[in-house]
């Protein structure tokens, strides 16, 4: 004989669900259903992905412009068309939506797969195309850049929550392959790693967002103009290629930057200033 028990299930990041345990001779089976009130608001499988995309896109813009504390879920709901009830259903709370938005922003400024999957016989040309693709994804995603900058300056998430999977590893490996090819061919100088190149590219590409107002106020340079957009594109590409191909004597270091498995908070910039004596400045 089969017995059916009706109960409530509450999860940390989802609303209350109605559920049933169906008992029988072959054990018990758990089935999750929804209350009649919730069922009317649940999207169909065909529209769910589209609605989630719209909600995350709206969250990127709003968090980037207003910050985490000032952003209201009601505003995101109104701009995305997804009800506040369904935002809680899919993301749990505002921080859950913020985490998804930050990860989407990071993924969006990665170069397309066709760039990373392509091999180049001439490493200089491969590096040129890679840097050009980075510049264009930054150009097309200003709110993603603003959101990432906000998270760096006023962090809401833990470092572990920012992990985006293997995509960042694909980018690093692609740059490392180009560097090895170029160094083996004698086109690129030694003592440079992928992190060095990425730091240079990201720093220059960020400039259009981080210093737009001050650059115009001090020098009347409008980074948004077509002339300066194209000029900045050439500058980023040329700066990276000059960095890689210059005749600077080898310093003896393997790279400019080094990865640390764990952050040394005791010696971080926030806790201790790194001092350079005049004799060390070159």
From TrEMBL:
One of its GO terms (biological process) is regulation of DNA-templated transcription. The keyword DNA-binding applies. Keywords: DNA-binding. It comes from the Bacteria. PANTHER family: HTH-TYPE TRANSCRIPTIONAL REPRESSOR SCO4008, TRANSCRIPTIONAL REPRESSOR. This is HTH-type transcriptional repressor NicS. Residues 49-109 form the HTH tetR-type domain. Residues 72-91 bind DNA. It comes from Corynebacterium glaucum. Pfam families: TetR_C_29, TetR_N. One of its GO terms (molecular function) is DNA binding.
């Amino acid at each position: 004989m089969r017995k059916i028990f009706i109960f409530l299930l509450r999860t940390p990041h989802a609303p209350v669900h109605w559920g049933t345990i169906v008992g029988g001779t072959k054990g018990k089976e758990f089935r999750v259903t929804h209350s009649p009130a919730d069922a009317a608001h649940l999207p169909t499988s065909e529209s769910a992905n589209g609605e989630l995309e719209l909600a995350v896109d709206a969250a990127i813009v709003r968090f980037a412009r207003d910050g985490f504390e000032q952003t209201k879920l009601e505003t995101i709901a109104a701009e995305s068309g997804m009800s506040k009830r369904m935002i809680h259903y899919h993301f749990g709370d505002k921080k859950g939506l913020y985490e998804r938005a930050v990860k989407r922003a990071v993924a969006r400024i990665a170069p397309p797969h066709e760039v990373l999957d392509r091999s180049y016989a001439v490493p200089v040309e491969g590096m040129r195309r890679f840097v050009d693709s980075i510049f264009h994804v930054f150009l097309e995603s200003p709110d993603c850049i603003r959101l990432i900058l906000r998270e760096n300056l006023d962090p809401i998430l833990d470092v572990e929550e920012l992990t985006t999977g293997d995509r960042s590893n694909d980018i690093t490996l692609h740059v490392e392959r180009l560097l090895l090819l170029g160094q083996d061919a004698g086109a690129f100088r030694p003592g440079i790693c992928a992190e060095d190149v990425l730091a240079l590219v990201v720093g220059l590409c960020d400039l259009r967002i981080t210093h737009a107002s001050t650059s115009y106020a001090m020098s009347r340079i409008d980074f948004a103009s077509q002339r300066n957009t194209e000029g900045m594109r050439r500058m980023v590409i040329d700066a990276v290629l000059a960095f890689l191909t210059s005749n600077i004597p080898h310093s003896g270091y393997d790279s400019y930057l080094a990865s640390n498995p764990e952050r040394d908070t005791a010696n971080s910039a926030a806790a201790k200033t790194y001092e350079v004596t005049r004799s060390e400045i070159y």
